[in-house]
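Predict the structure of diguanylate cyclase.
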Amino acid sequence: MDILTGLLIWSVEAMTLAVLLFSRWFHERDDFYLTWGCGFALHSLGVALVALRGDIPDFLSIQIANTVIFVAIGLWIAGLLQFDREPVQGFVAIPALIWIAGMLLDPIRENFANRVVLYNAAAMVGYAIMIGTLVRNNGPSRSTRRFMASFISVQFLANGASAVLAVVNRPTSFATAPNAMWLFFPAAFCFVAGIMSGAKLLTERSEEKLKTLAVTDPLTGVLNRRGLIDEFHGLRIVQKAEKPLIAFLHFDLDGFKQINDRCGHQAGDAVLVAFSQVGQTSLRGRGFFGRMGGEEFASIVRVGDMIEAASIAEAIRLTLKRQVIAAGEHRIKVTVSAGIALATAGEADLDQLLSAADRALYTAKESGRDRTAIDTGAEASIIPAADRQGEDEAPTDIRANRQVAALKRLTALGKR
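Done. Here is the predicted structure for diguanylate cyclase.
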């Protein structure tokens, strides 16, 4: 088999991959599938044009063909960035720009050996960018990414060797290049190995996506009950001497059934999504927030004391209370009640925490809703709140005094 036959086979394989990637994109609509599919399609076209050298004008088989190949390399890099959920940067065009700039120079354009050197130099730049993109990510597929990068590194070295041989031997065509066929086989091997490791990367991504779906609420995007349970077990074993307690915060939206009945289920869904955003934002990475089911939510947080747990619950409650949620033609204001249970991290039992938080939540509901209650062992007590007794109409200094008084009462409660 001569090198031109090998190039045609390579072209067919690349087009087959392009079709498979287009099919995957059609079903999943992830942008990187489309980008990679376009990259392999262009790569197939460029390689086919190179293989037809002598049967088509040189301008097509040299300038255009290799430009298309380097655009394809840029698309592969762009697909990697999309795969990593990063914006596509202008540096993906560097390999193609190097080739185009070189073709503007007569000593390079008119000399086969110089074109070979230019081609391999541009390819090495493209592969170097791909390697850097792969290895800088420390995600769950780190070993597979490095495995893939190792094969691209072999291709990088093969391009370097090809450039050196072109400088030394000064070939005038593929036929007079003594080691062209020898260098074709490692390139083909790396191409196939790179595809196989890329397929493994996609498989691992799909598995990770399934794992995420298993612990995530599909409507709100927050953790579901199973996800919260998993995070609870992880939070127990974390060593935090300054935060020895685990707080379980149980939330229930007030009057949610009436919202569904009055405004419709789409409005109800908008309320659930809005509260999920409030819960996640209010935690600021200090703990985990999730949906237990229906209009019930929960948060699991490591805290230093009862006051910290109450402050978090009150921040979530007050933030939601002050929001106006837009749902179509409806403008909805909604409140939430909260129940808190605490236990030392080493002795925390999820079932006991949930039962205690439920008792506190029931107390909050029975006390008029839009309140936070905390389980103190023998009973559940309402957390003193600053938004009571018409303080919205009170002057600023009076509201401040009430807030101070509420904090003092909360401190006294924590010392019981």
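The domain at 225-383 is CATH 3.30.70.270 (Alpha-Beta Plaits).
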